[in-house]
Each structure stands twice: as structure tokens, then as C-alpha cells.
Write a structure and sequence with these properties.
The complex is a heterotrimer of chains A (about 325), B (about 325) and C (about 260). By secondary structure, chain A is mainly alpha-helical. Chain A has ten helices and four strands. In chain A, the strands form two sheets. Chain A has a two-stranded antiparallel ribbon with strand order 1-4. A two-stranded antiparallel sheet of chain A has the order 2-3. In chain A, strand 2 and strand 3 form a beta hairpin. In chain A, helix 1 packs across helix 6 and helix 5 packs antiparallel against helix 6. Chain B has about 325 residues and is mainly α. Chain B has a domain of about 220 residues: Arp2/3 complex 21 kDa subunit ARPC3. Chain B has a two-stranded antiparallel ribbon. Chain C has a single domain, classed as Rossmann fold (3-Layer(aba) Sandwich), CATH 3.40.50. In chain C, about 40% of the residues lie in helices and about 25% in strands. The N and C termini of chain C lie far apart (about 40 Å). Chains in contact: A-B, A-C.
């Protein structure tokens, strides 16, 4: 440290010398360098995009929970029970008709919750149907299960062979396979739709309150609350780290480097997490936390709305029973 | 590895949920006994951390992706019960808020990833690390725990999925849930996990445990000794016990009340599952033909009892083998 | 037992704290704070101010030395007794430096209600206090929002509201103005003045000399060697430019053009 008596900067002060290579100017930007080298650390980018998506979706959820719709006004306990009943009904259904009815009911509920139907159907309907469909598609063919052929895809001939394997005479899309596949798809879509509806119109904490009223132990409820909250803190840390890293990387190697970065990122995340845990615990103690949890009741739900939802649910279940 | 809704019958989900319940009950009771909020905060942070780590998707050459699960890490840092709670919370949040895993299937996912994986990880870690291990041995134990736990969960998942077309069909043969039988489900899942997800899990677990060991070694689970030795066994015993009961219960479930499956399908079923479980394979053909056929033939449900007995025998053998291994690894040596 | 009977609110004797057995945080600090005093704990980052506040709040315990609050020893054993724990926690409030660590309830309303609810206040009283705090900190519109999604200034306000809701006699503040926008800063200072008028004891850990000048009549300077370098009236501390510079509280450009 310099002599405090001579505090004002003057010509006689020793000047801090920076390393010489910092003084080297960059070469002018030529035509070839204007094309940025894409840093192909795909999976890290995907994770961070995913992280942002998580944050965005949660914020989105809060917004919908604040709208004034039938679902929002119903009590969380009733919502949980009704939606669970519907998901169970979908799971137990063994025909396409009841499943289609249930999915239609979901869409109706979405409208009643004042959701944007287009994005709702896109996210929970098309996306799920598409990806589930992709997974079960081979299962719909005679390759997996023999069955009544509907559409013949490939005809190999009666004695076809591929090396040591004996090929079937034809590869077809079977009726049973198609029905089965569609059932899986519809069930998945219905379940995702209902879960989305539940959480999006209820908000995380109201949902937790409902679950607690239905018997979830208080300690577990507190565990959920804290976890949900910490996820966002951790995500912010990850995003900050990624932003800082991105600013320093000038070229990239995909795949392996990406995986190592991922492991290093998990590593660094862990460090920050442990420190945070200690601070949070201290903060809770400082505010008088003694181990038991006291949730202060706030939201009032409409009995009318809850009743209407229950009635609608029973109607749908009845319809499923009739149509099965 | 999270199973969405629609792939598993509600009966399967119910059975697996019931199987998870005792372990979770014990875990929650232990949590309640902690009046100190520190454990709560730590568990919550572990759950959140597990959630974020699971978001790291590793692209697999065949186009799908696998991701690290963190069950082993949780087991090593929080103990088996804390790990079960943390994993369950993570899974529940993933299912409820991000559609990753179904709601009814939550029972199955919790069983595979929240109970089985941490139990296997904890057990492997304790057995391999032993008492006061060197740093290398510790890291190896952690990595191995990670690898085996995730593969155990994958195997369980594959079996659960693969059993669906065998057990749950409409009268006309339509598979009601997951259409891929065991001979497709098991290899497909196991390949991805033995080759990709497993090593990733091993690496992440090893790295983090390595760091913790350097900075705050007291965070790591202590070696099982004294009363804790029982604690190390208990999760495994619970889990194995449930596995024994699991499939026969699925057989007995209302879903099969269609009664339409032919006896040869059943034989195929019983032939399949033990074949998938290496331990039981050799013994099945050796013991059971003498055991089940004369005594239980003709008895309603005889096949089920026969299966139960064979499974029990296989498990007892597995436990015996593990016990011998453990004694071999843990007996006093001149140098650790 | 708790009345201001002339005994100091805090009595700290030769307290030593070391992190992980290797990193010293406090190297023999002694301090006495009387009821109604406003003290600024001044020092650069890492000098141990936060650690000292946590020791005073009974969240950290020293490796050696003693700590007494309201005449009672602060030890893990004494705080394990529920009655003392409750009484102590109600009387001493700590505003953390890291707002995120401090906010862990679903909504702002519940965050503020947490303290009173935990300490057993009746529901109507809890409701009333929350409303009053929302108004005081000018955050009524945020009552149903999730605290961790707010801006830094808003989080700080919520945190302060939450700490004040139990009406503590002593308020410990850890770097309260760091990262704050000017308006929130002003509001904070006004509130601290108001608390001073009500006779509260304030300890503010900060490196913000302006804040110290505004709210504290006594300054305690902790140096980078984790010891107390000065304990006396604030104007005297702030006039000693030499001391301020050595303690790493001001830099060379300030010395050239001092602002206080």
C-alpha cells in the first residue's frame, strides 16, 4: 500500500504497469473472420435453454393462476381429487371411445380455466401425441405383436430371409397395434393435459396447501416449498455461470468438451449450493423457525366453483362408464 | 428413465407405489424427528440440485438422450433415507410441474429412482468403500455406486414396462399399455444405460464425491458399523422383499381377470422374468421342476406360489453371495 | 429479566471465530452495546463484520470468548431451551446480506407473516402486522407475489418487513444498502431514523460511510486483521482520514477528494 500521507495521485506516484501483451492491438477484421465459429457445445446450450424454459413456464403458471376462471376459483383440494379421478379413469379405460371423451373433457376444462387453447393444445396435445406416437409406432406393427393386419407396409414374400433371420411374410400395421398405440398416446396426452391444468391454474403453493389439506405431512410440504424455491436460485446461478463462460470461450469443441463442462458445471453448482443451504438455515433460525411449519391460510376459494368442477367431473366419469 | 402416464397399467403403478410406501414412511418419520431445520434445508437443496443436474441431457449417438440422475450422490451425502426423500421430491416436482414422468406412474418412478436406486447406491458404496478407505477406493466406490444404481433402476423400469403387454391385453390381443415386451424393452433400455447413462452417472458421482472428500469429508456417509450395519442392509432387504412380491401381485391384479391369457403365455412369463434376473436363472430350471410341478400342479394359483418360492430362493442366494463378498471385503486387514 | 436494567444488550469478550479450522474471521473482538445505541460496524469485505453479526444473533458460536445478550449467555445449550429461544428470537432481528437466503415463503404476505406465526402470535395480530409492514415499506402491491421473483430493492424491502414484523428490540443489519437503488436507500434510512426515535438498538455492518454518518452515533472499525481498530463517536472516525485509508474503507481518489 502506498503512503497514506501522500494520497492524491501525482506524477511521482508509481504507475501500475500492465503486462505488455495487453497492449497488442487486434488485427483488422478480414472478410473470412466475419463468419462466427459456432460454439457447438450443444448439450450445455440445450440445458440452459431448458433452464430458461423452466423459469418461463413457472412465471407463466403464476399468470394463469391469477386469471378469473372456474378452475382458478375452485379449491385446490377439489381440483386435485377431480383431476386425479380423471387421470385414473383414463388409465383404466380400455377403449378408444372413453379416452377420446376424456381428452375432449380436458379441452373443455382448459377453456373453463381461461387458457389460451391454441398453445395449450399445442404443448400438451400435439407435442405429447407426436412424441408418444413416435415411441409406440414400431409397436403398432406386426413386428412386435402379431395381429389383424390393417395396412400392409412391406411384403417380403413367403420364404424371405435376411442372413440367418427368417423374415415374416409381410410387415403390416395391425389393428390391435394401432388401437393400442392410440390408447397410449391418448392416455399420455390426457394425463399431461390434466396435470398442466392443475398446476397452471393453481400455482405451486396453493397446490401444496391443497395437498397438505389432503394429508401430506407438514414436514414434506415444507420440503417441497423449499425445493421449488431453490430450483430457481440454482438455475440463476447456472445461467450466470453460462453467461460468464460464454464470454470467455473463443472456439468450441463439441461433444466431449461439452460433457466435461457439464460435469464441471455440476461441480461448481454444488459449491454454491452448500454455502446457500447454510445461509438459508441460519435465516430460518433467525426468524424463529423451530422445526414445525405454520402455513398462514390466505386464499379463499369459491364453493360454487368447486361444486361445479366436481359435478363436471362426475359427468365425465359417467360418460366414460357409459361409453366403455 | 421417467415413465410417462399411459405406459403402465394402474395396477402396476399401485403395486409399485405400495412398495415404495414403507420406505417413504420410515424416511418421513426420521425427518419429523429432526427438530433442526438444517436437515430440511439440506434435503431441499439436494432435491433442487438433483433436479437441475437431471436437466443436463447428454446426447447419445443413436439420437435419444440420457441424463444423470444423482441418486447415488444423494445416498452418499444424505444417507439412504434422506436420499429417498430428496429423490422423491425431485420426481414429484418433475411430474407435477414439468410433465417429466406421469402422475400415476409416479409410483413406479419413485420406486425405481427414489427407492431402488438410492438403496443400491448406498449398499454398493458401503460394501466397496468399507471402513476408512483410501481416496482412490472411495472414489471408485462412489463411481461404482452411481453406475450400478442407475442400471438397477433402468432394469427395473425395463421389466415393469416389458411386463405390460404380457399381463394387460384386451380380449382381441390389443396391448393396452406399453406394447414392447421384455425381449425388446430390456435390451433397449439396458444398452443406453450400461453404455452411456451409467458412465455419466459414475463420472458425476465420482467427481463430486471427490471434491467433497477434499474439502469437507465429514459430509460423506460414514462406513456402516455397529447399529448402522443394520441400517445399510435394511433398504436392500425392503427392496428385495418388495421385488419378490411385486410381479406375482401384478399377476393377481384385476387386470388379468380377463382370464384370457393362455397357460403357455404364463409359462412364457415365468420363464422370462427369471431369465432376465441373472441370479435366478441357473437355479430356476434346476430346482423348480422338482419343486413346483408335483406339489403345486393343479392347485389354483400354484404357478404363483411356485414363482414366489423360486424368487425367494434366488434372493436368499443373492443375499448369501453378497454377505460372503462383504465379509471378504470388510474383514480386518493389515493395510486398508 | 428482560427489562433495560442498565445491563448492556450485547457483551462480547475476546471472541475468536475460525472457519473450517483454517480461515480466521474474528481474531479477539470485544464489544459492548447498550440499549438504544446506534452502532456502525465498519470494515472492508472479509474483515468479519458479518460473522460478528451472526455471533450476536446466536447463529454462529465462537471458538473462544464469551457472548452475552440481555445478560444471558448465548451458547448452543442456552438457545436449545425453547423459552429462551423464542424470547431471544423475538427481540433480535437480523437482516441478511443475501436477500435470497432470507426469503423462503410462497408469497410476500406469508414471508412477513412467518416470524409472528412461528413465534405464536394470534392470527388477527399477524394479519394486522403484515398489513402495517406492507404499508411501511410501500410494498402493498406485492403481497401475493413470490418473493424470490422480485427485484433486489423489492426483496430487501420484503426482508426488512419480515424482520420488523415481530417488533424486535435490536436490529442487526448486514450491508443493508449494497446494490440498492437511491429511493429504496432513502426509505431505508428514514425507517432506521424512525426506529431510532422509538428507542431501538441498531447495529449496522457496512462499508458505506455515508450510511454510517446518517444513522449511527458510534462507529466500530474492524480491520483486515479481524480486530477492532476503533470504537468511538462516528464523526471522530470519519474525520480520521488516515485511519479510514489504512482500514481499507476509502481509496486514494477519495483521499484526494473526500466527500464526507
Amino acid at each position: 500500500m502506498g503512503d497514506p500521507a501522500v494520497a492524491s495521485p501525482s506524477a511521482s506516484d508509481p504507475v501500475l504497469t500492465l503486462p505488455p501483451w495487453l497492449g497488442r492491438p487486434s488485427a483488422p477484421l478480414g472478410p473470412g473472420t466475419s463468419e462466427a465459429r459456432r460454439v457447438r457445445l450443444d448439450f450445455v446450450a440445450r440445458t440452459l435453454v431448458g433452464a430458461l424454459e423452466v423459469v418461463r413456464r413457472a412465471l407463466y403458471a403464476e399468470e394463469i393462476a391469477r386469471r378469473d376462471g372456474l378452475l382458478q376459483r375452485a379449491s385446490p383440494e377439489v381440483k386435485v381429487l377431480c383431476f386425479l379421478a380423471l387421470i385414473l379413469a383414463a388409465s383404466l379405460s380400455r377403449g378408444l371411445a372413453p379416452l377420446a371423451l376424456l381428452y375432449g373433457g380436458c379441452v373443455l376444462l382448459a377453456a373453463l380455466g381461461r387458457l389460451d387453447l391454441r398453445s395449450f393444445l399445442g404443448r400438451t396435445g400435439l407435442v405429447v401425441l407426436f412424441f408418444t406416437g413416435l415411441i409406440v409406432l414400431p409397436g403398432m406393427t406386426s413386428l412386435v405383436h402379431p395381429g389383424e393386419p390393417l395396412v400392409v407396409l412391406v411384403r417380403f414374400g413367403p420364404d424371405a430371409r435376411l442372413g440367418p433371420l427368417a423374415l415374416p411374410s409381410e410387415l403390416s400395421l395391425t389393428r390391435q397395434g394401432l388401437t393400442g398405440g392410440l390408447m397410449v398416446m391418448l392416455r399420455a396426452a390426457t394425463s399431461v393435459s390434466l396435470v398442466t391444468l392443475l398446476t397452471v391454474t393453481t400455482g405451486w403453493f396453493e397446490l401444496l396447501r391443497g395437498l397438505r389439506a389432503l394429508g401430506l405431512p407438514a414436514a414434506v410440504g415444507m420440503l417441497f416449498t423449499l425445493t421449488y424455491r431453490y430450483i430457481f436460485v440454482l438455475l440463476t446461478v447456472v445461467q450466470d455461470m453460462y453467461a460468464a463462460w460464454q464470454a470467455r470461450v473463443l472456439g468450441g469443441r463439441a461433444g466431449d468438451a461439452g460433457r466435461r463442462l457439464g460435469a464441471a458445471a455440476a461441480y461448481a453448482l454444488f459449491l454454491r449450493s452448500e454455502a446457500l443451504a447454510r445461509e438459508i438455515h441460519q435465516a430460518m433460525l433467525a426468524r424463529g423457525f423451530q422445526g414445525r411449519v405454520a402455513f398462514v391460510q390466505r386464499r379463499r376459494s369459491s364453493v360454487w366453483a368447486s361444486g361445479a368442477l366436481a359435478a363436471l367431473t362426475l359427468l365425465m366419469l359417467g360418460g366414460v362408464y357409459v361409453v366403455r | 428413465m421417467h415413465i410417462p402416464d399411459g405406459y403402465l397399467s394402474p395396477e402396476t403403478c399401485a403395486v409399485l407405489a405400495a412398495g415404495s410406501a414403507p420406505a417413504l414412511y420410515v424416511a418421513v418419520r426420521r425427518l419429523r424427528q429432526e427438530s433442526d431445520g438444517a436437515i430440511l434445508a439440506r434435503l431441499a437443496l439436494a432435491s433442487a440440485f438433483g433436479f437441475v443436474v437431471q436437466m443436463l441431457n447428454v446426447p447419445v449417438p443413436d439420437g435419444t438422450s440420457a441424463h444423470a440422475v444423482g441418486a447415488a450422490l444423494a445416498a452418499i451425502l444424505l444417507g439412504p433415507w434422506g436420499a429417498m426423500l430428496a429423490m422423491t421430491v425431485t420426481l414429484a416436482i418433475q411430474a407435477l410441474f414439468f410433465g417429466d414422468g406421469g402422475i400415476l406412474a409416479l409410483g413406479a418412478n419413485v420406486f425405481n429412482l427414489g427407492i431402488l436406486a438410492p438403496a443400491v447406491a448406498y449398499f454398493v458404496y458401503q460394501v466397496v468403500a468399507g471402513r476408512s478407505p483410501s481416496r482412490t477406493r472411495l472414489l471408485m466406490a462412489a463411481a461404482l455406486a452411481g453406475y450400478l444404481s442407475i442400471n438397477a433402476a433402468a432394469l427395473a423400469t425395463a421389466i415393469e414396462l416389458g411386463l405390460q403387454p404380457l399381463l394387460f391385453r384386451a380380449p382381441d390381443g390389443t396391448p393396452l399399455y406399453n406394447p414392447y415386451p421384455l425381449n425388446l424393452a430390456v435390451p433397449a433400455m439396458m444398452f443406453a444405460h450400461l453404455v452411456v447413462a451409467g458412465p455419466v452417472e459414475a463420472l458425476v458421482t465420482g467427481l463430486i464425491v471427490g471434491y467433497v472428500h477434499r474439502v469437507q469429508p465429514d459430509l460423506l456417509a460414514r462406513p456402516a458399523e455397529g447399529k448402522w450395519a443394520a441400517g445399510a442392509w435394511l433398504p436392500l432387504v425392503v427392496v428385495l422383499g418388495l421385488l419378490i412380491v411385486l410381479t406375482p401381485l401384478g399377476l393377481l391384479a384385476p387386470g388379468t381377470a380377463f382370464g384370457e391369457w393362455a397357460p403357455e403365455e404364463l409359462e412364457g412369463l415365468i420363464g422370462y422374468v427369471p431369465r432376465g434376473l441373472a441370479v435366478l436363472s441357473g437355479w430356476w430350471s434346476g430346482l423348480l421342476p422338482d419343486y413346483a410341478v408335483p406339489i403345486l400342479e393343479g392347485v389354483p394359483g400354484g404357478e404363483v406360489i411356485g414363482y414366489l418360492l423360486s424368487a425367494l430362493m434366488g434372493v436368499l442366494l443373492a443375499v448369501l453371495v453378497w454377505g460372503i463378498l462383504r465379509w471378504l471385503l470388510l474383514r480386518p486387514r493389515t493395510r486398508s | 429479566m428482560w427489562s433495560a436494567d442498565g445491563r448492556p444488550v450485547f457483551e462480547v469478550n475476546e471472541v475468536r471465530v475460525t472457519y473450517l479450522g483454517r480461515f480466521p474471521a474474528l481474531a479477539g473482538v470485544s464489544l459492548r452495546v447498550a440499549s438504544g445505541e446506534q452502532v456502525a460496524l465498519l470494515g472492508p469485505n472479509g474483515c468479519g463484520k458479518s460473522t460478528l453479526l451472526k455471533v450476536l444473533a446466536g447463529l454462529l458460536f465462537p471458538d473462544s470468548g464469551t457472548v452475552h445478550a440481555f445478560g444471558h449467555p448465548l451458547t448452543p445449550a442456552s438457545l436449545a431451551r425453547p423459552a429462551f429461544f423464542r424470547e431471544f428470537r423475538r427481540r433480535v432481528g437480523l437482516l441478511f446480506q443475501n436477500s435470497d437466503a432470507q426469503l423462503f415463503n410462497p408469497t410476500v404476505f406469508e414471508e412477513i407473516a412467518f416470524g409472528p406465526a412461528q413465534l405464536g402470535f394470534p392470527p388477527q395480530e399477524v394479519e394486522r402486522r403484515v398489513r402495517d409492514m406492507l404499508r411501511l415499506l410501500e410494498i402493498e402491491g406485492l403481497a401475493d407475489r413470490a418473493p424470490f421473483q422480485l427485484s433486489e430493492g423489492q426483496k430487501r424491502r420484503v426482508a426488512l418487513a419480515a424482520v420488523l414484523a415481530v417488533n424486535p428490540d435490536v436490529l442487526l443489519l448486514d450491508e443493508p444498502t449494497t446494490g440498492l437503488d437511491p429511493r429504496t436507500n432513502d426509505r431505508l434510512v428514514e425507517i432506521l431514523w424512525g426506529l431510532r426515535r422509538l428507542g431501538k438498538t441498531l447495529l449496522v455492518a457496512t462499508h458505506d460511510l455515508e450510511l454510517a454518518r446518517l444513522v449511527a452515533d458510534r462507529a466500530v472499525i474492524i480491520g483486515e486483521d479481524h480486530r477492532v481498530w476503533f470504537d468511538g463517536p462516528t464523526p471522530e472516525a470519519l474525520a480520521n482520514r488516515d485511519l479510514l485509508y489504512r482500514a481499507n474503507l476509502v481509496g486514494r481518489s477519495w483521499m484526494a477528494h473526500p466527500v464526507l
